[in-house]
Amino acid sequence: MATEIAASPPPPDTGTAAPSRDGAPLPPHLRVWRHYALVKVRKALVVVFVVANVTFFLGRAMPGDPIDVMAGRLTQGGMSLEEARIIAANSLAYDPGAPLWQQWWDFIVGLATFDMGMTINRPGFTVADSIAAYLPWTLFSIGVGTVIAVTLGLGLGMAMAYRRNRVLDHVLSVVASVLGAIPNYLIAMLLVVGGGMYLSWFDPIALRGTLSPGVEAGFNAEFLGDALYHAGLPIFTYVLAIIGTWMLIMKASTTEVLSEDYVTVARARGLRDRRIAVSYVGRNAILPLVAQIAISFGTLVGGAIFVEQVLVYKGVGGLLLDAVNYRDYPLLQGLLVVLTTCVVAANLVADLLYSRLDPRIRK
Amino acid sequence: MTDPRTEPSADPGPLLSVRGVDIAYRTGRRSRVTAVHGVSFDLHPGQSMALVGESGCGKTTLGLGLLRLLPRNGLVPAGEILFRRKDGSTADIRSLGAEELRRFRWSEAAMVFQGAMNAFNPVLRIEDHFLDTFRAHETGRPRRRAEIREESAHLLEMVRLDPARVLDAHPHELSGGMRQRALIALALALGPQLLILDEPTTALDLLTQRAIVERLSELREELRFSMVFITHDLGLAAELADRVGTMYAGRLIETGTTRDIFYRPRHPYTAALIDSVPPVSGGLVVPESLPGGPPGLASLPPGCSFAPRCRHARQVCGERRPELEVLHTRGDGLSHAAACLRSRELAAEGATRD
Lengths: 363, 354
Ligand SMILES: Nc1ncnc2c1ncn2[C@@H]1O[C@H](COP(=O)(O)OP(=O)(O)OP(=O)(O)O)[C@@H](O)[C@H]1O
Ligand code: SF4
Ligand SMILES: [Mg+2]
Hints:
The complex is a heterodimer.
Chain A: H1 2-7, H2 28-33, H3 36-61, H4 66-76, H5 81-91, H6 100-112, H7 127-162, H8 167-181, H9 184-198, H10 221-258, H11 261-268, H12 273-286, H13 290-311, H14 316-325, H15 329-357
Helix pairs in contact in A: 3-15, 4-5, 7-8, 7-10, 7-13, 7-15, 8-10, 9-10, 9-13, 10-12, 10-13, 11-12, 13-14, 13-15, 14-15
Chain B: E1 16-26, E2 32-43, E3 48-52, H1 59-66, E4 74-84, E5 90-92, H2 98-104, E6 109-112, H3 126-136, H4 145-158, H5 163-166, H6 176-188, E7 194-198, H7 206-223, E8 226-231, H8 234-240, E9 243-248, E10 251-257, H9 258-263, H10 268-275, E11 325-329, E12 335-338, H11 343-349
Parallel strand pairs in B: 3-8, 3-9, 6-7, 7-8
Antiparallel strand pairs in B: 1-2, 1-4, 4-5, 9-10, 10-12, 11-12
Bound molecules: adenosine-5'-triphosphate, iron/sulfur cluster and magnesium ion.
InterPro entries (chain A): MetI-like (IPR000515), MetI-like_sf (IPR035906)
Membrane topology (chain A): Multi-pass membrane protein
Keywords (chain A): Membrane, Transmembrane, Transmembrane helix, Transport
């Protein structure tokens, strides 16, 4: 009897991909269609499509079009309005006569063929070129900031959970809550004013931009060093902006895992503390937080627009503000679609990573 | 050379000797509750003792305390937990250093936990659990992985699991019964002299429960480890234990051989518990003869803790706290003791044996 029970199959695993509703095996084409990763990719594409449409209509819902904006500025120089409008219409790659549905259709077809068209205000430049010139700096600084903040936050949060209700925990909890409450552009301002101007730790003027004059992009130490030097302030801002949250969620997650039976059993088994901390507590505490990495990344992409303005860092922040101010619809749409895609892609990677790391989902 | 198994060796004394142990939980900066009060008992090599009692009486606390596995707010403010080590020396578990304690755990005393469906790390395979356990207690040259795997497979076979299927599985791929068997196999891995089992089968269906209990009692015959068996289920206690200890509100209120306890209970509480054994073993039902619940730890009555529920209570029961008192000692040194002011009187009346 004993062997009979032991050899019986485990209950069906419902966490894995592709179960049909009635439990019957699926035909192969449906199994692929419902595969875990593919389902996630499909959802991601839908999100990008929806955001693209929202961007399109919101952009055009703003008062004035590119020609109005440029003409408005020309009249400030003393030109008459009619004259200004004609000059503006001639110098901008924008046809105010094209019906809205036409513009929408062009935009959607463009997206489907990975062609985001020409900018309106920077004649001769494609949207893709403009984005390609600025986006890498933003992604670089945010990426490095996220990695540093997450790594430190995980370590500190775990230390807080192990020493909960002791001095270290109390101090770090206050620090984390305060950091979490300050908006990130304010952190940037405080850094510039406090560290740069008041304490003179660095020269905020020399730090501006993404590279020092004369430094060429290339895969060498000088370039990388200089890029990091200029990105230092944004990165530090991003680290401060999200590290508090990471400390607190890691503390909560670790505290929860510490009360799990398997941790007590591991102690009972006489495992070394280090082994328990890494493979039993750490791994299980981090697992549910993997998806949060993408959320942090998304938060920072949003915040970067302002942080980059404050720190005069030449990422997509300035480009986006220009696109809004001059009603450069294609650039605005292109930027937001690309940024959304980055965030959605980050979520997708986090999701897939999670499903790889957690054996209860993996198949 | 004589075979030590056939030669009746001189009694080397108890394997585990618990002397006046108190266990408390801190509940605030200054406050604590005492969950276990002055518990004393001896456990001889190869013996098995059941701890029974209602929920909250301190069974798990005592079990965890023996291995110093209490949660962060738990402490053992008084008493001795003397354990005869494999090397023949006797050590007080309370005073072991951290590293010594780590080495002691599992290699000399292992524990199967209450409702331990969650005893395995969900991200590791069963084999990794065996590997971690062996590696943590290795002295000298590390053994090869394949060697450890083979030994683990053998252990799993001992609890009637199919190693080919179980070793590479993650915990969630096993049923509750399989996990519990695997945990028992893991507990036996280092050949401990003592196995503490805290309601090892409570969450399982009856069939699985029976199979595991039967296998456990066979394994005990075979491997001769001592056992502390914590349970709600007096039926299981009768089956697996040589001795039974009844706990009430943190105290051991009666101890004796299984026969003595079941046929001649000398404490009204034990008697009531036995009356309440349901026909088919399952959870503990509150019997008609035992209304109400146990007192809160923070507000124990001054005299006998059981007095408010005891139908034999007299005025004296509310004034003096009864101590565990030996009623008789059998030829083999095992005694029957109860903590009831009226136990002799009631025995004479035949009141504790309805
Ligand atoms: N971490 C803790 N902090 C404070 N009090 C606790 C803690 N753990 C247990 N207790 C208290 O200690 C007492 C004994 O609990 P314990 O778990 O040992 O009982 P038990 O006999 O094992 O009960 P059960 O049969 O339900 O498992 C209970 O009153 C419980 O509330
Ligand atoms: S001491 Fe008194 S109250 Fe307590 S069990 Fe004995 S008879 Fe009952
Ligand atoms: Mg318990």
